[in-house]
Amino acid sequence: MVATHCSMCGVNTYSVSKYIDDVSEEFIRSGISTTPFNLADLRRTVETRLAGMEVSKEVRGYLQSHGLNGVQTRHYDRHDYEQEKRQTLRLLHSWIASRGANKFSAEKVVSIKRGK
């Protein structure tokens, strides 16, 4: 969701940003939103919401593909944080669902076409 680069799957920051821009435009056209948004807005919002849910800065950093700096992280910590990231994504999903994300009808869902 929030990582923006995957060399093996053909996803990069530009393609994700383009998709988000298209979704933003469609949301405005369809009346779901009145304000445009971009990838940086989504990443900032996710970071802020997860902080409010008491997700550690460390896990938020790994989830957003920022990682952490420092001797301990660079040289000694080889943990992949996969379980922590999955748990955090479940928490984020629950929060989104609780906010009424299901109230939008299927015809307002925007398909994101896979890049070439």
Q: In short, what is this structure?
A:
The chain has about 120 residues and is an all-alpha fold.
**Order of helix and strand elements from N to C terminus:** HHHHH
**Number of E-type strands:** 0
Q: Percent range for helical residues?
A: 40-55%
Largest sheet descriptor: none
> Based on helices, strands and strand pairing, what is the structural class?
mainly alpha
Beta-strand percent range:
under 5%
Give the number of domains: 1
Topology (SSEs and partners):
Elements: H1 13-30, H2 39-52, H3 57-63, H4 71-76, H5 82-98
Outline the structure in words:
The chain has one domain. 53% of the residues lie in helices and 0% in strands. With 116 residues, the protein is mostly helical. The two termini are 19 Å apart. It is globular. The chain has five helices and no strands.
Please tag this protein with its features:
single chain; mainly alpha; 53% helix; globular; 116 residues
